[in-house]
């Protein structure tokens, strides 16, 4: 069953098209990733899918409801984790969940059962009566996720959910998201962490300048767009090594600062040439989703 569908969706601001004919469809129970550099149109797309801004063209169906015409009805079955924590600092952890549940018109008896379950899910039972300023960044993100689940949604929108978290907090949040997927929830995820997308997403779409440029599972995208293995060469001698050995050793290569990226099908020749090479360090690894992302969108900074 398609839980979210968009066809030929467009949006322009000030004469500039920021989303240019986007098609996507999410099946129930999957995690779908929407990836792209800054300014690619991800957040605008999410806001249109939720019915928060009207599309300039195209059709959107969210949980069977046409959007934006019936967006309010659809959002009753949706949970949202925004980029920034927007918890109410005047309330405790428990009160944030209680007040949010009342926005959905949930009965007091239902909330009395639901809130302890959400606190346990977020590993915040001991912090139920704490003020928001007393929480760490990881605790706040887990509370925002728990709050997004207060209405027991069918679909979750997660907009860069682990930005700013330390590795321990990120891994704990990933564990919670995998649990939700096992429970049959559907997730639409935007993230700048390629390892996060690779771990969580069944399928993903990479967009740039509002246009889709690649779609598939992480494994499919790696196999389709990048050589299977990478030798990264660091240090003052990386450029000289690449000039001397790149044509013979690399199927494709890039030099950025003092790092040479040698993309290969067979790492043997590159590894052999690096043994005893001066002023370099190197690492040999499998290709990953970040390699695909950088190949398709470029390495230049986006502001």
Give a short synopsis of this structure.
With 303 residues, the chain is α/β, with parallel strands linked by helices. It is 36% helix and 29% strand. The protein is built from 11 helices and 14 strands.
Task: Please render the helix and strand layout as text.
Elements: E1 2-13, E2 16-27, E3 31-35, H1 42-49, E4 57-62, E5 65-67, H2 71-75, E6 78-81, H3 93-103, H4 108-121, H5 137-148, E7 155-159, H6 167-182, E8 186-190, H7 194-200, E9 203-208, E10 211-216, H8 218-225, E11 229-234, H9 238-249, E12 252-256, E13 259-264, H10 268-274, E14 281-286, H11 289-297
Parallel strand pairs: 3-8, 3-9, 6-7, 7-8
Antiparallel strand pairs: 1-2, 1-4, 4-5, 9-10, 11-13, 11-14, 12-13
Helix pairs in contact: 3-4, 8-11, 9-10
Description:
- This protein is globular.
- The strands form three sheets. Strands 6-7-8-3-9-10 form a six-stranded mixed sheet, sandwiched between helices.
- It is built from eleven helices and 14 strands.
- The two termini are 38 Å apart.
- It is α/β, with parallel strands linked by helices and 303 residues long.
- The model has no long low-confidence stretch (mean pLDDT 94).
- It folds into two domains: 2-217, Rossmann fold, CATH 3.40.50; 227-286, Alpha-Beta Plaits (2-Layer Sandwich).
């Amino acid at each position: 069953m398609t839980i979210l569908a968009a066809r030929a969706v467009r949006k322009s601001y000030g004469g500039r098209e920021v989303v240019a004919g986007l098609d996507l469809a999410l099946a129930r129970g999957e995690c779908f990733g929407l990836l792209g550099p800054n300014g690619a149109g991800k957040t605008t797309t999410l806001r249109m899918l939720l019915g928060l801004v009207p599309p300039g063209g195209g059709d959107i169906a969210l949980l069977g409801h046409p959007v934006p015409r019936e967006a309010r009805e659809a959002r009753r079955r949706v949970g949202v984790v925004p980029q920034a924590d927007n918890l109410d600092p005047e309330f405790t952890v428990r009160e944030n969940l209680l007040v949010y549940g009342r926005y959905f018109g949930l009965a007091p008896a239902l909330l009395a059962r639901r809130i302890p379950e959400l606190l346990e899910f977020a590993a915040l039972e001991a912090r139920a009566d704490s003020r928001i300023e007393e929480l760490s960044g990881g605790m706040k993100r887990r509370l925002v996720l728990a709050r997004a689940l207060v209405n027991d949604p069918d679909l979750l929108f997660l907009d860069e959910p682990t930005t700013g978290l330390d590795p321990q907090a990120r891994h704990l949040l990933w564990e919670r998201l995998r649990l939700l997927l096992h429970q049959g929830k559907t997730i639409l995820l935007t993230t700048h962490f390629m390892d996060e997308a690779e771990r969580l997403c069944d399928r993903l779409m990479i967009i740039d300048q509002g246009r889709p440029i690649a779609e598939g599972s992480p494994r499919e995208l790696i196999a389709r767009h990048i050589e299977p293995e990478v030798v990264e060469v660091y240090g003052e001698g990386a450029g000289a090594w690449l000039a001397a050995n790149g044509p013979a050793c690399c199927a494709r290569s890039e030099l950025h600062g003092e790092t040479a990226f040698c993309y290969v099908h067979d790492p043997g020749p590159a590894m052999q040439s690096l043994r005893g090479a001066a002023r370099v360090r190197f690492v040999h690894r499998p290709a990953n989703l970040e390699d695909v992302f950088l190949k398709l969108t470029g390495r230049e900074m986006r502001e």
